[in-house]
Amino acid sequence: MRKNQSPDECQRLAALREYRILDTPPEQVYDDIARLAAHVCRVPMAMISLVDVSRQWFKSRLGILTQETCREVSFCTHTILMPKPLIVPDATKDARFANSPLVKEDPHIRFYAGFPLLNPEGVAVGSLCAVDNKPRRISAAQQLAMEALARQVMALLELRRVSARLAHELEHVKTLQGLLPICAWCKRIRDDHGYWTKVEAYLQANTDADFTHGICPDCLDRERVKAGHQTHDVAA
Question: With the CA atoms of 143, 147, 153 and 158 taken in that order, what torsion angle do they form, in degrees rounded to the nearest 10?
C-alpha cells in the first residue's frame, strides 16, 4: 500500500469508476457548486476533486488553470482518508504540506478546507475544497454550508450512476423487443448468429434475469394423469 492510501483503496477506486465521471467535459451544475463553495468560504479558489490511482482530477475548478495534479502532492489525498473535513489554516505551518510544490510554487496554497465526497457506503471518492493563498479560518456556519454542498455533489454523482445503470438495463430490454424466432416444438430460440438455444440460456445472455424451476399446476396434473395410466397398464 502506498503512502497516504486507504486500506480499502481497491473498493474506493471501484466506487469511483461506477460514476464514469473522470475526464468528462465541464458541466454547469458542478461549476455552480464550486462557485458557491468559493463564495461561502470567501476564497478565490474552489475545486471538485476526484482522486484517481495516481492523480486528482478536477470535475470543476475555479481560480486555477490546471485540470489535474499528481496525487502524491495533493491535499485531497489526505481528505479522503477521513470521514470529516480537513481544515488547514496555514499550510506553511503544517508538516504534511509545508514542503509541497503546491505550497512553495503556484498556486501557493496557504489555506485549504477539504470536505470528503462520501458515497452511500461511506467511501470517499474525492472532495469539495476551498483554497486561498492567504492563511485564514472558516466559521462553523461556513463549515456546515460546505458539508451541504459536498452532499449535493454526491447527489449529482449518484444520479449519474443510477441513470447510467438504467440506460444499461434498457439496452437489455430492447434486445427482447420485436419478434423472436422460436421453435414451435422444442421452444428453442434462434439468436442473431443463427444458433438455436434454450429459452433460459437466451434470456440469461440478453437480460439480468436468473431462473428457478418448478412445475405449474396444469403440468403437474398432466403428469399425474400419465403416471396413473402407466400404473394401470402395468397392473393390467
Answer: 170
- The three grid cell numbers given for residue 160, joined into one nine-digit string: 449519474
Look at the block and give the residue holding cell 470536505: 115
The residue assigned the cell 449535493 is 152
**Contacts of residue 155, Cβ cutoff 8 Å, sequence gap at least 6:** none
Query: Amino acid identity, residue 176?
Result: L
Cell of 233: 397398464
Across the beta sheet with 124-132, what order do the strands follow? 68-70, 55-62, 45-51, 124-132, 111-118, 86-88
Supply φ then ψ for residue 143, to 5 degrees.
-65, -40
Helix axes 28-41, 140-174, angle to 10 degrees: 170
pTM to 2 decimals? Answer: 0.71
Do 152 and 221 fall into the same domain? no
Quote the cell numbers at residue 141: 456556519
**Which residue from 132, 134, 135, 164 is spatially nearest to 17, judged by alpha carbons?**
164
Tell me if 80 sits within 8 A of 12, measured CB to CB. Answer: yes
> What whole-number distance in Å separates Cα of residue 163 and Cα of residue 171?
12
Host domain of residue 221: 189-235
Summarised one tens digit per residue, pLDDT across range 12-71 is 999 999 999 999 999 999 999 999 999 999 999 999 999 999 999 999 999 999 999 999
Q: Which of 150, 165, 180 is the last residue of a domain?
A: 165
The answer to whether residues 107 and 206 belong to one domain is: no
